[in-house]
Amino acid sequence: MSRIGKQPIPVPSAVDVKIDGLSVTIKGPIGELQRDVHPDIRVVLDNDKIVVTRPSDRPNHRALHGLTRALLQNMVIGVETGFKKTLEMHGVGYRAQQMGSNIQVSVGFSHPVDVEAPKGIKIEIEGNDKIIVSGSDKEQVGQTAAEIRQIRPPEPYKGKGIRYEGEYVRRKAGKAGKTMMQ
Fold first, then answer.
1. The domain spanning residue 30 has which CATH number?
2. For each successive 10 residues of the chain (182 residues), what is the average pLDDT?
3. Are residues 100 and 155 in the same domain?
4. What is the pTM of this model?
């Protein structure tokens, strides 16, 4: 069983943490993130470390303890170094174009699909077939990457579509029984 919640979160010197009741604001070189924590969980700043404590060993408090600690850790990492997800496009004629801060994706539909970058998220194109989503909020980076992937998820027969970098697409055989049915 994990004891993630008990570990203190080290705060780098470039990051500023402000705890105001249930609200935690973390400011760094890349941006500023704010989150409200559950009323049962206590968050304290102690000697450049964030300490998260729970009131009891009830299962819901234990779950909230680890969750809160992990979310705060992601906020500290996000404002210091940021998060990045890379998507690859596989398929003949599949490409993306930069349109200011937004992108336009051509993936085999009769029309190109426009994707708007949410506030705080940066979408870049590398080459014609790589999309890089970056930002300080891990949840928002992951959600934006998932929405771009959902435009044309990879299909199992030819492997065409938009996939995460390094994602394995399990391939299926085509129609093998066609010649045996005579």
1. 3.90.930.12
2. 82 93 93 94 92 92 94 95 95 92 93 93 93 95 96 93 94 71 50
3. yes
4. 0.87
